[in-house]
Amino acid sequence: MTMPSQLQRVGGAFRHTLANLVTGLRVLARPPRFGSLRETIYRRPGPWIVTALGLLALGLLLVPTADVAAIVGARKLSRFWIVEPFDFYTDFGRSNWFLWPTAAVVVVCAALASERLGRVASATLAALMVRFGFLFIAIGLPGLFVTIAKRIIGRARPFVGGAPDPYLFSPMAFHVHYASLPSGHTTTAFAAAFAIAALWPRTRYVMAAYAILIAVSRVVVGAHHPSDAVAGALVGILGAMLARQWFAVRGLGFVVMPDGEVRPKPGPNRGRLLRLLETLAARARAVVRGRARSTT
User: SS3 for 170?
Assistant: First the structure.
């Protein structure tokens, strides 16, 4: 195969993938089909009110009562037995662990999607694209919001001023030392925990434990006050809830029940995934045979 023909194939694959991604974005931006975002939230406001007011009240309570005690106490913990294990674990609160894999799945699905695969395989790829696209948005957008907001708020990290002062602020400082509120790692962890559990409810206890330990780790390693972690949990959960609601009113991955409850749609089962793999393998073998004939 000559170099120009190889470049032509690559260019065609790129245009095909880009076209499918653009189509996916258009579907995501289409008008709601099952009530407006506001209407469906008002239909079942309890979870929103409990989450927002509960975490907000907890965060405000922690500032005068526990922030100083927690960050001072964290310095007295055993470095070898407690701090270093938490220091290792806290890295799993970075958004990269979720955003890169989910984005990769979306791009691969867009690259593979084709009418020639048949109805079942195409529907399976579309379902995977919707679910992993939801995870990317539900985790990425709260994280992006916090990345900007924390630098505008400008709360100092523990002991930045030399003393455990939870009231030290330098708004608009745009410096890492004054980017404590909210905790970005905790935002990512709770957004991921809510989003994954929303799609696969059986994971909710494991994901809740993961998120809580990330929040604790941010205090243990001395990066945040407890109230920073609670604020991160608040933003992460509410951001993921909004993303779920956005998808649900468009019939993407979720369904809105008459009482306003949002439930996940059944995802591709093992049989459909295996059938998809078989279809892709057969398609790949056909392409290889076609190229072999063209070179003989």
Answer: coil
Q: How far apart are CA 260 and CA 36, in angstroms?
A: 11
Stretch (H or E) spanning 49: helix 46-65
Question: Where are the domains positioned within the chain?
Answer: 36-295
pLDDT of residue 229: 97
What ranges make up the beta strands (E) of 33-97?
Answer: none
Q: What is the DSSP letter of 176?
A: G
Side chain identity, residue 210: Y
Q: Does residue 141 have a pLDDT over 90? A: yes
Q: Is the predicted pLDDT of residue 290 greater than 70, yes or no?
A: no
Q: Is 1 exposed, middle or buried (0-12, 13-18, 19+ CB in 10 A)?
A: exposed
Enter the pTM of the model: 0.93
Q: Which whole-number Å values give the CA distances from 50 to 53, 57, 132, 181, in the listed order? A: 6, 10, 27, 21
**pLDDT tens digit string along 53-108?**
999 999 999 999 999 999 999 999 999 999 999 999 999 999 999 999 999 999 99
Residue 125 CB partners (closer than 8 Å, separation 6+): 109, 112, 113, 117, 276
Q: Dihedral sign for Cα 166, 168, 169, 173, please.
A: negative
Q: Which two tokens stand for residue 131?
A: 């679910």
Alpha carbon distances (Å) from 126 to 37, 252, 267 = 23, 10, 10
**From the centroid of its chain, how far is CA 213?**
17
Indicate if the pLDDT at residue 113 is higher than 90.
no
Of residues 232 and 38, more confidence is placed in 232
User: Which uninterrupted H or E stretch holds 264?
Assistant: strand 262-264
- Angle (deg, nearest 10), helices 119-153 and 184-199: 160
How many beta carbons lie within 10 A of that of residue 87, not counting itself?
15
